[in-house]
Design brief:
Blueprint (H helix, E strand, L loop, with lengths): L1 H20 L3 H25 L2 E4 L3 E2 L2 E2 H22 L3 H21 L8 E3 L1 H32 L6 H20 L3 H19 L5 H32 L4 H7 L4 H17 L7 H5 L5 H10 L1 H11 L1 H4 L3 H22 L4 H22 L2 H32 L15 H15 L4 H12 L4 H25 L14 H19 L1 H13 L19 H20 L21 E2 L5 E2 L9 H4 L1 H22 L2
Antiparallel strand pairs: 1-4, 2-3, 5-6
Helix pairs in contact: 1-2, 1-6, 2-5, 3-4, 3-7, 4-8, 5-6, 5-12, 5-17, 5-21, 6-7, 6-13, 7-8, 8-10, 10-13, 10-25, 12-17, 13-16, 15-16, 15-20, 15-25, 16-17, 16-20, 17-18, 17-19, 17-21, 17-22, 18-20, 18-21, 19-20
């Protein structure tokens, strides 16, 4: 146990230091690749070992780790405060100073420092460790060749990769610590580490836009951190222990304790970029693609929904639970609508991520076995499919110099391999029998008793079909016989292929995932939800997979037998001027023919919706926190 936890939490710290200190590119490739492999193996080994109730590390040079974490907490807040003054951000300064003062009162006056196990794990924690360690490692490995080309494009005279991979790799250790933490002060420490790392990664390129978006991400997450500290103090007042397990076992307490839980969930909302805090995650799109993938799929944002889902037993059956479901459902439908008005591929992925995180939050608020099952399924499948899509968009952008989906029209002809992987990623987010759709279906079924929630989930799901089908269909095309195939570097191709296989294969393994990982959790102390509703039934995906396989086989054979078609331009009523598609326009001048998707910006444009969405989201958040009272 000690070896596995040391590998999962401390190895990324040591590897990050090695990346920063040793400036050799060859050493960095070796360190990142080996670390990713070791983390992946260790996460699987921990899963096979199974859940554990309590574990704490020993001492370091005679000092307890609780004391070390306390010192690191204040040091971390000091670093964030330094950046607040450096960036002249009053918000960062105020929120961080408030955290320092309140944490000092909590640590040195209120808390009785009785020994509390630092770590514990149930199947939810083990699933999260697998996601962070395997998907996060693949993203880091993908970043090795990607950042070389990225810096070449920026014409940098001196590489900034040592610092980049320092924060990228240490992120993995912080997330593993967060999902395994049982001591709430340890959870808070890892929570703040992810905030600092994301700030540094978003602002990595150092441009004015990057720094502005990184600053916004830091002040918003500092606001969430302040909510965490206040909520932690109120929750401690109820259970008089720092143990998260004790808080969950106690179940819903009085108004003061529920308000504390609501504020910790609020911190999770900010971290998961729920409305009205979505702007920090949208701004993170200025960062290099590995950062976008890491923040959106397996780490930063998943920390937020993990916290809300982890605390589900502490607010089950309360008004707080109902309002969390409404807040999540609103984010789901609002961001799905905003995604329709986008042509920027990364923005579509960002809005889709926030929307899906809202769906997971809604499931946590519904707080039934079916809803909890849907939430965990969505966490798993969304992480794999969305990381695949982000990495594909990054690869495409470096090749064609654009992330606009209109510029990806017919991309299969130019980049068949990447296009195939991207289209597969889109289909796994959109169609049966893939896991994301199964999760959405379960979520809608679980919301049957809440009229407002089910309306928003059904409407959001319909809107989701629009932007995924539009994007995936646009990339399709045909290739001429004998046209050379696309060539990708090994460390680009390997993560993409593994993520694609995972997105398809894990959906086929849905029955096994449910039976072995999720079902045992539903009646455990960690997620003590009401199980009186009976069996959830079976996931009959194998028949769907057989039908899908037969359909692909028939389509492939038909495609091979089809004659080679001649590509012709659009018919313009005789006004065509040539094979280039131009036509005779006003003043007898040639006009280039163009086709594009409809984005309905008058209905779904950011400028039309964002202000009203934020106002409604803020009002719902106030309602949620008030639900604790």
């Amino acid at each position: 146990m000690s070896n596995l936890l040391s590998i999962l939490i401390l190895l990324p710290v040591l590897s990050a230091l090695a990346c920063y200190i040793v400036r050799s590119g060859a050493v960095r490739r070796l360190v990142v690749t080996v670390t990713g492999g070791v983390l992946s193996v260790a996460s699987v080994a921990l899963l096979l070992r199974g859940s554990f109730e309590a574990w704490s590390p020993g001492t370091l040079f005679g000092l307890s780790w609780d004391l070390i974490i306390t010192v690191l907490d204040f040091a971390l807040l000091g670093v964030i405060l330094y950046y607040g003054f450096k960036l002249k951000s009053l918000f960062i300064q105020i929120f961080t100073l408030a955290q320092i003062v309140l944490l000092s009162v909590f640590e040195f006056i209120i808390v009785e420092h009785v020994a509390v196990p630092a770590f514990r794990a149930d199947n939810l924690s083990l699933i999260m460790v697998l996601i962070v360690s395997i998907i996060g490692s693949l993203i880091c490995i993908f970043g090795l060749p990607y950042m070389n080309r990225h810096e070449k494009h920026l014409n940098l005279q001196k590489t900034k990769q040592p610092e980049f991979f320092f924060y990228l790799v240490i992120f993995l250790g912080a997330m593993n610590g967060l999902v395994l933490a049982n001591n709430i002060l340890w959870l808070y420490f890892f929570f703040e580490v992810t905030s600092l790392c994301s700030f540094r990664l978003i602002g990595h390129d150092g441009t004015k836009v990057a720094v502005a978006n990184a600053t916004r991400a830091l002040w918003m997450n500092s606001f969430g951190g302040l909510g965490f500290v206040v909520g932690m103090m109120l929750a401690y007042n109820a259970v008089e222990t720092l143990s998260i397990a004790a808080l969950l076992t106690a179940g819903p307490q009085g108004a003061l304790a529920l308000t504390g839980v609501a504020l910790i969930c609020f911190a999770g909302f900010v971290k998961a970029a729920q409305v009205p805090f979505q702007s920090w995650l949208l701004g993170a799109m200025v960062a290099p693609t590995p950062v976008s993938a890491l923040l959106h799929s397996s780490t930063m944002v998943k920390a937020g929904v993990y916290i809300v889902l982890r605390l589900a037993p502490a607010y089950q059956g309360t008004l707080l639970s109902d309002t969390i479901a409404i807040c999540g459902a609103f984010t789901f439908v609002a961001c799905a609508a905003l995604a329709i008005g986008q042509s920027n591929g990364k923005k579509i992925l960002a809005y889709s991520t926030i929307s899906n995180l809202g769906l997971i939050v809604a499931c946590a608020g519904l707080n039934t076995p079916l809803a909890i099952t849907a939430a965990i399924m969505l966490i798993i499948f969304h992480a794999v499919s969305k990381s695949l899509l982000f990495l594909c968009v990054g690869t495409i952008e470096q090749e064609i110099g654009s992330r606009d989906i209109e510029d990806m029209r017919g991309l299969y002809e130019r980049m068949p391999r990447t296009s195939f992987l991207a289209i597969t990623g889109v289909l796994t987010m959109l169609l049966p029998p893939f896991g994301v759709l199964l999760g959405k279906w379960m979520a809608i079924e679980a919301a049957a008793g809440s009229i407002w929630v089910i309306i928003m989930l059904a409407l959001g799901s319909a809107l989701t079909v629009v932007y995924w089908a539009r994007w995936g269909g646009g990339m399709m095309g045909s290739r001429k016989p004998g046209q050379p195939s696309e060539s990708l570097p090994l460390l680009i191709n390997l993560p993409l292929m593994l993520l694609c296989i995972g997105a398809v294969g894990l959906s086929a393994a849905t029955p096994a995932i449910y039976a072995n990982l999720i079902q045992p959790m539903l009646s455990s102390a960690a997620l003590a939800v009401n199980t009186t509703t009976g069996s959830l039934g079976a996931f009959a995906v194998y028949g769907l997979y057989i039908a899908l396989g037969l359909g692909l086989f028939v389509a492939f054979r038909a495609g091979r037998r089809a004659p080679v078609l001649r590509k012709v331009g659009p018919y313009m009523g005789g006004a065509n001027l040539g094979e280039d598609g131009s036509f005779n326009g006003p003043m007898n001048q040639p006009v280039a023919f163009g086709a594009g998707n409809l984005y309905l910006s008058e209905l779904f444009g950011e400028q039309k919706l964002t202000m009203w969405v934020n106002i409604a989201g803020a009002a719902l958040l106030v309602l949620m926190i008030g639900g604790g009272l």
